[in-house]
TrEMBL record:
Organism name: Promethearchaeum syntrophicum
Protein known as: DNA primase
Pfam families the UniProt entry points to: DNA_primase_S
Recorded GO CC terms: DNA-directed RNA polymerase complex; primosome complex
GO terms, molecular function: DNA-directed RNA polymerase activity
BP term (GO), one: DNA replication, synthesis of primer
Record family assignment: Belongs to the eukaryotic-type primase small subunit family.
Keywords on record: DNA replication, DNA-directed RNA polymerase, Primosome, Transcription, Transferase
E.C. designation(s): 2.7.7.-
Length: 382
């Protein structure tokens, strides 16, 4: 990677990009007095955007099992889904990984962007919407840049505090008044600010949807251990009581058979549904490189692009971030070079799945995607 570059204007930057055509392009999220200096010490740190990275890679999705796979580098064994720790055939630990994208994982990361902006940045932090800059990463996620002065000057510890708040990390119920008073479990009120109110609201929303919803949430938590069937049945039989307590804004949530430990597990399951699933490492880094707007992502050929928040709902990365006009006659001849090229939608057309050795003539955007994903090679027409 070539780093420490500085350009007097966009014109010079664009000229450099044209002559070198890098596969990936980044810029620093940090402002320096001398950005071109060779070492960090010499650069003269001024401030840094608060950057939030939301990527389907960090969020568990079911589709991964369908479209990702790994191949053992030693023996060539094929593993569908997440790569295993160890090859079951030869004990090898090195794999070539193919990670794909589909409508489901792109939708999951979009949902998390709405969650972050609506439920945290706008409501809890009161950040003006015009200070929130939103970008499609060109792959399976989004970057949110906060340029509010108060955020620019934050040090690393402060950035970690904010990231922990957004992800519900270091979750302490004590500070939100969770306690047992004379054997009565004290919950939260829907009116409570911040996390306490969010937890009460989320529990209420689940309870009012009835037994199937309660089972779905507590039998299949996003992270960690599920609740036992007997505990879930206790929640179901006390459903009306809890709904009434929460809607009456009463904080006594005493249910026989649910002790302090179980309540904490319930809160953790709720927290994981409420939190914004951000990549914390990115947000606390004061020297982060971020993809350059307008360049292509080297793993997809899609554009890194700024999106107006109002347009996010209708934004379709597999259509709106394509680099070339959707011209079915502008094609490229390629040959599949991986065991499987999973199905991908480009624009309005589905391509694949394809198998090793298949020779194809595909429209440029689709061919480019497969080349960038390294499941195909350019094949001169015979
Ligand atoms: Zn192997
Ligand atoms: Zn997917």
């Amino acid at each position: 990677m070539v780093r420490h570059m500085q350009f007097p204007s966009n014109k010079y930057l664009i000229r450099h990009l044209i002559t070198t055509a890098p596969r990936h392009s980044y810029h620093s999220a940090t402002y320096y007095e001398r950005p071109g200096a060779e070492t960090m010490d010499q650069k003269g740190y001024i401030s840094c955007d608060f950057v939030v990275d939301i990527d389907a890679d960090h969020i568990p999705t079911n589709c991964r099992q369908n479209h990702d796979y790994a191949i053992c580098k030693a023996c060539g064994a094929f593993f569908q889904g997440e790569k295993p720790l160890k090859c079951s055939k030869c004990d090898g630990t090195k794999f070539d990984k193919i990670s794909w994208i589909c409508d489901e994982c792109l939708e999951v990361s979009k949902k998390q962007v709405f969650n972050l902006i609506e439920n945290f940045l706008l409501s809890d932090f009161s950040i003006p919407i015009e200070d929130i800059n939103l970008y499609f990463s060109g792959h399976r996620g989004y970057h949110v840049h906060l340029k509010t002065k108060a955020f620019l000057d934050l040090d690393q510890d402060a950035r970690r505090e904010i990231s922990d708040y957004v992800t519900g990390e270091g979750f302490s119920f004590k500070i939100w008044d969770y306690k047992m008073i004379q054997n009565n479990m004290m919950g939260f009120s829907i009116d409570d600010p911040g996390w306490a109110g969010k937890i009460a609201k989320e529990l209420y929303n689940i309870l009012v949807l009835g037994e199937p919803r309660i089972k779905e949430v507590f039998e299949n938590p996003i992270y960690g251990k599920k609740l036992s069937t007997s505990l879930i049945n206790i929640i179901i039989s006390n459903r009306q009581y809890l709904i009434k307590q929460i809607s009456d804004k009463r904080k006594i949530w005493q249910v026989a058979g649910i002790g302090e430990k179980t309540w904490i597990r319930i809160f953790e399951i709720l927290r994981d549904r409420i939190k914004a699933d951000i990549d914390v490492v990115v947000s606390i880094d004061l020297h982060r490189l971020i993809r350059l707007e307008g360049t292509l992502h080297g793993k997809t050929g899609f554009k890194v692009m700024k999106i107006k928040y109002d347009n996010l709902k209708d934004f379709d990365p597999l259509k709106d971030a394509l680099s070339f006009p959707d011209d079915q006659d502008n094609t490229l001849d390629i040959e599949i070079s991986a065991p499987i090229s999973p199905k991908i939608r480009i624009g309005d057309t589905n391509y694949g799945p394809y198998n090793l050795g298949e020779k194809l003539k595909l429209p440029l955007n689709a061919a480019l995607f497969l080349l960038c994903k390294e499941v195909a090679q350019i094949k001169p027409p015979s």
